[in-house]
Amino acid sequence: MNGQNTLTVNGREIEINGEKNLLEVIRKANIDLPTFCYHSELSVYGACRLCLVDVDGQGINSSCSMKPQPGMKVKTHTKELRDIRKINIELILASHKRECTSCVKSDSCKLLEIASKLGVEDVRFKQKLRGAGIDRSSPALIRDMDKCILCGDCVRACDEIQGIGVLDFAHRGSDAIVAPSFAKQLGEVECVDCGQCARVCPTAAITPASDTEQVWEALDNREKVVVVQLAPAVRVSLGEMFGYRDGENVTGKMISALKHLGFAKVYDTSFGADLTVIEEANELMERVTNGGKMPIITSCCPAWVKYAEQYQPEFLGNISSCKSPQGMTGALIKNWLPGKLGVEKEKIVSVSVMPCTAKKFEITRDTKDIKDVDFVLTVPELARMIKEAGICFDELEPESFDMPLGFKTGAGIIFGNSGGVAEAVVRHLTGGDGSHNDVLPLRGNKGIKTKTITVNSTEYRIAVASGLKNAKELLDKVKSGEESYDFIEIMACPSGCAGGAGQPVTHSETTVALRGKGLMESDKMLQLHNASENPWLKELYGSFLENPGSHLAHELLHTHYKSRKRFEGGISLIQSEGVKKKISVCVGTACFIKGSQKLLDRIVRHVSVENLADEFDVEATFCAENCEKGPSVVIDGELIQHCTIDKVKQAINDLR
Amino acid sequence: MHSETHVNAVRKFAAVCAILEKYEYRSDKLIPILQAVQEEYRYLPEDVLAYIATAIGISPARIYGVATFYAHFALEPKGKYVIKVCDGTACHVKGSTPLLDEVRKKLSLKNKQHTTDDFLFTLETVSCLGACGIAPVVVVNDEVHSLMTPGKTSAMIDDILAQERVEDEQHA
Amino acid sequence: MNSMPDLKKIASEYDEMYSQVNRRVIICAGTGCMANGALKIKNEFLNVARLTGLKFETELRQEEEKFDLLTGSGCQGFCQMGPLVTVEPEGIFYIRVKPEDVAEIVAETVMNGKPVERLLYKGSAGKPCRTVNDINFYKKQTRRVLRDCGNIDPEDIREYIKRGGYLGAEKALREMSPVDVCDEILNSGLRGRGGGGFPTGKKWALALSEKNDKKYIICNGDEGDPGAFMDRSVMEGNPHAVIEGMLIAAQAIGADEGFVYVRLEYPLAVKRIKKAVETALDYGFLGDNIFGTGKSFRINVMEGAGAFVCGEETALIASIEGKRGMPNPKPPFPAQSGLFGKPTIINNVETLAMVPGIITKGAAEFRQIGTKDSPGTKTFALTGHVVNTGLIEVPFGTTLREIIFDIGGGVTGDNGEIDPEGFKAVQIGGPSGGCLTTEHLDLPLSFDSLRSIGAMVGSGGLVVMNRNTCMVQVAKFFMQFTQNESCGKCVPCREGTRQMLALLEDITEGNADENTLVILENLGKAITKASLCGLGKTAPNPVLSLLRYFNEEIQTHVTQQRCPARKCKSLMTPVVIEEKCKGCGLCIKKCPVGAITGEKKQPHFINEELCIKCGACIEACRLDAIAEGV
Fold it and tell me: Residues of C with CB below 8 A from A115's CB?
């Protein structure tokens, strides 16, 4: 060992190798110091005070915030440190709602794990709960602030990974709480449902919403035929909940378990993914040929779509009109399947198992009476159902997916990885099977990946972003003209769906990568790797849809988007008694940037000067949901786009 | 005719825009911005905060977090007369608690209530105004009152109420 | 804008103008005296001047004829005696001046130089003191930082310059290198006066060694300790000393921008500092090409928004960055990575105000007073049960006895009268500090001596407590304060102080048991080690200090459920109301522990040490002559 670059941990010499903090060096020395608020992908917060160590000459300090220095003498478990850690946990437990036996995170709660590891037997302090109540306003996530330990991981995840900042600390001291703006409920604010907050939460303060009861109800109902579709990323993560190693493909047993639970048919969302490839590639070609809006941006990630509707309205026209694979599969389940199975549409209950919380939001976009997908389950929800039914997962004999919606090529499976959609489309365009080196730059867990491919002397510039902050960075460059692309894949979760919030909770940093690897291996193991080769897709088009982009395909498999306001409300400026015509000026970001504030100023002056306050109220609102064509002003219910003061004056005159 | 309230609303909003301009829409100037806006409105209305968040490019949760962290910022409207009773060490030792009790009793303030129902008075405790030599200290709208007793405090409130009645009569 | 202000010229011009001054009236205009009506006094002087035809100017300027000058000064520190008026050149010092006294002061003192006896301070044995040099409170102090507070008009920069102001900055910028400046301050042994006691020169050297083209100086004026107003007085009374200190610090580390962060609860200080910054800019002491050296330095003044924790360095930085004032782990230290990630030096107001003197007079001179580990002087805010409350400055090494009895004039009872045996304890360092008792009265105060007994200098608050004080209530009061001001980020402070407060409440409510004190101590010690920042680390100090020095008192609360000082309402033993008691003896019979004694027909007496608060006596008495704990 090079004595120049080492420090000692409990007397043992350990080499320093570019680790960014002392904690990582100590973990390298095989001592797993407990932490709540430390995540290698988030900024250092230093608040939980569990990773304290005693450094000779420096005293006791948090190891996550210290740089490793050669020659440091570190002790990790002196009596003092052990006592401090215990007291820390006791203090947390004293303000934590302890319903561990019935808590949904009892098998993966970090607080429980650390308390147990540290041997905390007694909580010597008084119980002091916030009494905040449970927030179930969001279809995707549940918040229970009596289980929050204020580690701030969710705050930093939403801010640093997604660049949104829905949650932040509010108030101070023992009144401090993690809250959306103005203490509103999660469903009322600009949350995109990606669930990254839940992914990093060490307790059950934020967890995916639960739809298990409704699914049980459907399964119990003899009148119904319950079918289920499973996302690609699910088959390489479900095993983690039954003791299998990270990333192992348990498809066969998974299907068997579902059959045991009572699902009539088990289908594969990867089939829908293959379908998406065809439809989307077709769309891409159409745009290229007809000069349509470029680049085309993927639409399979519902959190990205919501984010775009709220924050990137200029790109709404770029997003592919294709539904997500879940959406497409669901549409086929309710429209193609009845004919195939001889079952009425009304009798079918369509369930999906997703690695994702935003999928629970996605199905609420469906406003039809008979929805394409009725319920979404996360992987832990499915695992709990299997356990509740007493099914011995490990003993099951593997079974296969049902047809016609159960066959997929490798292209459909890799959708679960960041870069997978792009690669699948590339394979389709080039006729490749994934073995060509061309697609390698699209793989891996880098936040932004790019590659240009050539097909028949046409160049396609491809970009892949995962994590919404990275997405914004990429789109900003496209907006400014600094970079330009033809096809962009965007996933809200870093590393793609394999790392989604609907996956089993993991505290290991390698799990997500291993799941991704599992998907690539599954791809290799399959017979076919190119979506266009899927025989069942050919059957689908041949007997039902006719062609990619056909009228029926558009009706069932495509959708549209619209600007979405981030929060309600506005500022009333001129308001008096009586029935008035209202002038609402949007001061949301997009319109604000286009000068709506100054326009508002001039409108107010106009109304005051011309003595129109008896007939018109003026208010500033936070989003007229017409972001692309701002400044937007609504006068007496009618929207004026690209508004100017002259247009307003004209409209006022017309109304009088 | 324009009502006084809407002229005020417009003027105040224009003031917010001017404040944002003055601080160049910089998010690191958030605290001085909020201080100036609170000067204008006497508290921080929710919709104005949302507007400021949009204008300076930060999330509304963050602006709410800052506004609720600092004791000076009020998210509820304050009364016309803000009574601050100092509860610093010296004032405490010299008897600030009886003063607080007296004010609460006199203004019929319920448990966690800070502002009277008619929005005339707001009661706050401050931890040390640095006037320890003349403890106990009570400040009403920046006017410092020294060596206070419950009796003097009660009398001070009576004076204000009398003043308010006179003004009301003048306006009627 | 002057880029080469000629200090000598300004001083000599000042002298010339001043030669026409006949007499000068200085009215103390610190926050305390302003509250007590200093403005009314000033207006009355102008009024009287008008009526008597005297020429009273409120600003020094060139006059052809002799005139009298009327100015305000910063806090003179003798707060309970205000409003204070001094008449120069005789230095006649009046206390408790009322508007109706002004006419006499003008007639006797301003016009004729004769004192008005009844308005003079009476020392021991009622001896009238003509000037501050005759008053123990003042003459026992060594006023360095406060030397000019109380004399100069803080809004007139020329007075500051006349007293040697900005000479230090000129020397530092024109004749010294940054390394020289750091060395000089290091050699002086100056230690941070905000509470940390870290060697200032060492801190500056750290920042100097960082290679970065942007560095900051921040003056920490967020003096939040309840009971402390030293920094306020310096900012109100001599703001230019602070600015000059910052300018020298900027030279030392290579900064071109600075901030003064002032509590918003100090509106007068904010006003004076802002004005001083403007004036300094006008005169060329701030801005570009200062003293013709090509160096720039600009100061922004920012007001706090009501968070004690923002007195902590990293929390202060977060506040300036527009965020919640939550501290960050150290290291990295602000000197390495501070405001906006740049090397930043944060110094206390008093520390900065001492810097110019060190540069002009030298490190050796600074070391001549004080102690070896703590050279120089320290300001203290002396409050509580002491005759003379106010702001004082003494060399390190001074003992508590000298401060409380010589300067402070002795300990008082609750009624304000001197109580020679009344001393119980003095809280030093506010909510972060501990209490000192009779055994420490002769301890020479310094950073190290206090640390060795488990206390700290802190920012300089000294609260004297008489024998009627319940030390448990005091600890609880400070814990409530800390709990209120905790930012809530780290577990030990947020949850730990809350639980400590709950335990203290148990004690004062009579719900404690033998485990309470053990848990309290263990918890307190854990919090001091585990907390993220200084607020949390020092929050348990009042309690730990209580357990160490007043163990018996707290044990009595726990085991006997009794408050010896009779301040904890739930623990009070009943008392016989002598006027009502007819001495019938019924209560003596009923008392199960024989705690009541008394002769027939004489008022009886309940021994509180034996009483178990069962209430039988209250029930038995037919005359309502026994009251519940009062």
Answer: none
Q: Does residue B172 sit at the A interface (CB-CB below 8 Å)?
A: no
CB-count burial class (<10 Å; 0-12, 13-18, 19+) for C506: middle
Q: How far apart are CA C400 and CA C404, in angstroms?
A: 6
Cα A179 vs. chain centroid, distance in angstroms? 19
> Which residue in A181, A469, A575 has the most chain B C-beta atoms within 10 A of its own C-beta, making it the best mutation to test that interface?
A181
Q: Which of A45, A80, A172 is nearest residue C487 as measured by Cβ atoms?
A: A172
**For range C486-503, the mean pLDDT:** 96
Give yes or no for B95 touching C (CB within 8 A). no
**Region B111-139 average pLDDT:** 81
User: pLDDT tens digits for B25-73?
Assistant: 999 999 999 999 999 888 999 989 998 998 899 999 999 999 999 999 9
Query: Residue C437 is which amino acid?
Result: T
Beta strands C216-221 and C344-348 are parallel
Model ipTM?
0.90
Q: Are residues C181 and C302 in the same domain?
A: yes
Classify residue C145: in a domain, yes or no: no
Distances (CA, A) of C102 to B82, C48, C52, C179: 33, 8, 12, 53
% pLDDT > 70, chain C: 99
Residue range(s) of every CATH 1.10.10 domain in chain B: 4-69
Host domain of residue C27: 11-135
| B31 contacts C266? CB cut-off 8 A | no
Helix (H, G, I), strand (E, B) or coil at C125: helix
For an interface test with A, the pick among B17, B52, B59 (most A C-beta atoms closer than 10 Å) comes out as: B59
Q: H or E stretch including C476?
A: helix C471-485
Q: Would you call B17 an interface residue with chain A, using a CB distance cutoff of 8 Å?
A: yes
Q: Tell which CATH classification among 3.40.190.10, 3.40.50.10890, 3.30.70.330, 3.40.30.10 matches the domain B81-171.
A: 3.40.30.10
Which residues 6+ apart lie within 8 Å of A165 measured at CB?
A: A155, A158, A159, B58, B59, B61, B62
Q: Of the candidates B87, B92, B129, which has its C-beta nearest C265's C-beta?
A: B129
Would you place residue B2 in the very low, low, confident or very high pLDDT band (cuts 50, 70, 90)? very low
Q: Do C302 and B32 touch (CB under 8 A)?
A: yes
Mean pLDDT of chain B: 86
Cross-chain residue pair B50–A601, CB shorter than 8 Å:
no
What digits encode the pLDDT tens for the residues B132-142? 667 788 888 87
CATH class for the domain made up of B4-69: mainly alpha
Q: Does C331 touch chain B (CB under 8 A)?
A: no
CATH number for the domain harbouring residue C578: 3.30.70.20
Select from C32, C78, C227 the Cβ nearest to the Cβ of B88.
C227
Mean pLDDT estimate for chain C: 92
Please tell me the total count of domains within chain C. 5
> Per mean pLDDT, which of A479-488, C2-11, C218-227 is the most reliable?
A479-488
Site of tokens 């959406």: A327
Residue C140 lies in a domain: no
Q: What is the pLDDT of residues C565-590, one digit of tens each?
A: 888 888 888 888 888 899 888 989 88
**pTM of the predicted protein model:** 0.92
Looking at the domain assignment, is residue C261 inside a domain?
yes
Question: H helices within A324-409, ranges in order?
Answer: 325-335, 337-341, 358-362, 379-388
Give the side-chain half-sphere CA count within 13 A for B132. Answer: 33
Task: Give how far B90 is from chain C: nearest CA, Å.
Answer: 6
**Residue finishing a domain among C308, C334, C367:** C367
pLDDT tens readout for residues A324-371: 999 999 999 999 999 999 999 999 999 999 999 999 999 999 989 999
Q: Which of A44, A124, A173 is nearest residue C487 as measured by Cβ atoms?
A: A173
| Contact of A192 with C501, CB cutoff 8 Å | no
